Amino acid sequence: MTGQRRTVLAPAVLLFGIMVAHAILETARDALFLARLGPERLASAYLTIAIVAMAAVAAVRRWGGVRDPRRMLVTFLVVAVVGTSLLAVAIPTEPSLVFVLYVWTGLVATLVVPSFWTLIDRSLRVTEAKRVFAAIGAGGVLGAMIGSALAGVLGRVMAAHHLVTAGALAFGLTAIAAMLIAPAPQREELPPVRKRVEVLSQRSRRYVRLLILAGIVSTVTLTLADLTFKRVLAERFAAGDLATAFGAIYTLLNFVGLVIQLAVTPKLLARWGVGNTLTVLPILLVATASGFALTGALIAIILLKLSDGGLRHSLHRVASEILYLPVPSLVRDGWKPVADAISHRGGQAIAALISFAIVLAGGAQLLGMAVAVLGVAWLIAIRVVKRAYVEQFRDTLRAGEIERDVRAPTLDADSTALLTEALASPDEVEALAALELLARGGHVPALVLYHPRESVVRRALTLLDGQPRPDVAHVLGHLIDHSDPKIRAAALIAASRTGSNELRLEAAVTDADPDVRAAALIGLASTPDHEQVVSDGVAALQAGSSMHRIALAHAIGDAPHERFRRTLYQLLALREPAVTREVLRALARAPQLAHVDRLLPLLEDPHVRGDARRVFTATGAQGLDKLIAALDDPRTAIGVRRHLPRTISRFHSPIATAALVARLPREPDGTTEFKILRALGRMRANDPSLAIDASILHDYLRRSIADAVRYTMFLDGMVAAGDPSPGAELVRELLREKRRWAIEHTFRALGILHPRDDLRSVHDALLGGSENRRGAALEIIEALLPAELRAPLFATIEDLTPDQRRSRLGDLAPGPFATYEALLAAQLADPSESLKCVVAHHIAERHLVSLRHELSRLRPPVGPPLVIYAFDQAIARLDV
Amino acid sequence: MSDVNLLTLRRMLRLRKFPPFEHADLDELATIAENLVETTLPAGSVIATPGSRLRSIHLILDGRVETRNQSWGAHQAYGALEVFADREVTQTAVAATPLHTLQLFARDLGEVLEDNYGVLLATVRELAARVLALAPPPPRRPAIAPTGTLGLVERLIVLRHQLPFASARLQALATLAHASDEIVLPANTVMTRAGETATSAFVIISGAAASTHGGDTELLAAGAPIGYLETLANLRYRTTIETRTDVRALRSRGSAILDVIEDHTDVGLAMLATFASTLLDRPAGSVAGDARAAGHARDRARPAVAASG
Asked: A410 CB contacts (<8 Å, ≥6 apart)?
């Protein structure tokens, strides 16, 4: 037996057995109950079942443990055999035990069926489940159908109480089958240590509570529908004919259910997803129950039962079971039996109470009205569950992820105390780290300026920006005589802001240290009496070594002034990175001095890029306009262009977002395009309320998926060709990367459209090795992408044969290519420059002269020299 | 403030003492801190046995880890090379004293570095400096026949033959190949000068050059890489290299290499794996103190300006 068959067949056989036994027992109990006790006591029976079932589940949870769902199933089946056998013996002698039989049948169903599904949930992943649940469920529907038919036949030839013995026998055979073929549960793949696992468990419990609520609403609705139907039926049939009538009706319903299970359920699940599939039954119930309530027509109640019987154990059951799959087994194993008992039996109890009230107030039509109203409530519950279902998968993915984009904690009294204590540490690194954290919160204490480590004091001085606080100004007075020239310089600059240390500044102009000199000169710049001294001193520093220029730029940065604008740009023109950084620091503090045109080229240099970005951000709208214009200007150097998106993204404004979105489909450079995607992703992640033009992104999404499709098909073709040459291997390697790249683009675009959905995790899970995470990712994508985009995307990701892929993609797939040359020619025409070059190289390597014409035809007249050269080089090699 | 935040702050303060986190942005540091698991082990605990794979890197806060011929103390990371290289441990490692560590799980490492470019770059630089401190590996065979101008494919092949790019993806290399330029230098041209900040890396395509360091001179032929590790480690050139004949070379600027690492973090991760493998495969004699040697090399050779992101 193949793995796939075993996955389906063994559970299907087991469920078949369970449902045969249950259907026989159900027919026996309904017939005996309605014949001996009458329909008016049905509600009492439901209430009793609810109480007994919940007590039993609680007892199992408390004393039984739920560590091995397989063992649990076998145990429950054995209990079912023993209990049913005892009842089979006792009922003929004690007719009042019919009520006990009714309750027992409900109790067995409450314990056995959920434990079966718990085991199956543990042995399958969501992707498999959606594929095979319908087939497994078909085993159950077939079992119910055969069980009902068998009960109908047996009901004709023997008394109804003998059916109980048949039920016990069927349970016995199923118990043996379970011992032999029940699948073993799989282990969960959740990481062992992860804070989010606990969060996931908490959220999962909330989700299960939501499922219970939705389950109760659905059970109340279905039970009332069933009661309505049975009430009408009891009025139309003689008591003695009820067993045969129920047998025949259930057989018909189960046949309809089987057809739906096999022909409709898998398709609906694949096309509509779980959430939408779940709405089918309540919609039909609302329609038919309303019809019956308004008209009292028999056809309406028949259609109602047809919908219920045809869909409840097929479509509805399968979709409902899938809802439990995102719940980690840690939570699911313990909670599912409880959830099933509460939602099923609790729902029945509530339905019984409602039916008591309704029967007192009116007849079956009023019951029909209640069904219609509850059906609407059920639809609302499904809508809520649908959202929570996808959210569960997101939580599952997050539980296996690292914590991303964490921000340094904001400071309060406790944390400030902790950091202040660390600041006093003689350990320089620790003190500096504490200082940085305190500075970010604006809490640099004046006392740090007394720190024994000079590096700490220096750093503190640079962090004390603007007008010093009174406590800081007081301490600065002591530092002007510090032995460390950098501290002296920083103290002079800081003190100059108070305007009370002119004499000290004058004295420092002749200091031997350039830092101190520069600080003094800049400090004196605001006093008209020292204009000449300042001019001469600044000129001397400019003409000195790079150390002098760094000192000058640093001092200007500490006290930027319009007067030094020219000096700053003269320093900038020297293109000394260390000096440039100091100049940029000054411009960031005084953006009114910034000349954005002259700053643009600096984005190319990684040593100063960050500082240049800070200046652009500080210049506000003026800087943003310049950056947007540069991004749209084809003359902008590629080295600069590639750093524009991230720089623009620093503005976090709708204008910045709109500019990047507008540029995305028009950007010819692949790297810049990727950086636009990244920048937009970051902006929307930080602020999901930033508006974007979704239509542009949807178009881009389509384009990216088309790219992924094209590269996948090219790759399939290259793999099928099996060319062992190094060039062909290079082409295949590049195609693999291009496919991956296109898929990443797709997910980045999706992430921009849905910034709260953590598409990064979804992407990683889809391409990763964990089947659990991959299944979760597929479910999330299903909720985000329409079917026409989803299908081709999945076709590129899934492990399919080339023929399967082509048939799934239809017209979207390029080709088929009649020859290897045709395949290479198609790649030569691809927009990717790298692919063109590698394919041209491969054509020359294989000396495929038949493609010379294509090389000449497709050689780009303008563009990157390397690409043109690749064509020329290949043509030349073919001509040899 | 919650205890969780205080814990994060405490960890951030301790992490700063580890070289790769020395200059990390505060938010990056917070991200790393949040993804660590604090562990205490009694003296004598076995941390790894030969043939096993480490589940995590141990960032040692207090205590000491020892193997037969190496030990790691506070503010050092045990297991980093094995995890980067995805290699098995070759020697039993035990806690020589009570041990307090922060564990960074191997399965999280790639993602953590991918998301925190500053830390990734610092780690690449750290390992590049350590590789540089080793005896240089034997020159690799010339990647291509030195005839004609290099096309994109030839550039890809040349770059792939360089140690830092040995496992890099083609897309990333294609970007670097486009950003590189083929230069022709006449004989007696200085390509690099010892002590100058390394801003470009070269591969000789044809011709010959001489590398002079102290009194030693070494001849460099086609295929020889020049300055890759120095450029990546943000150090100064160690030797002066002067062309002996006309030399054709492929030059990649440091800024272009950094851009590629930033845009294709997989290149950075692949570099870490390659460097870690190189360090693990080093001769036994060079085991002890190579990090210290690299540290000294860095101190001597650190240029004044670092990249600003």
From this structure: A441, B1
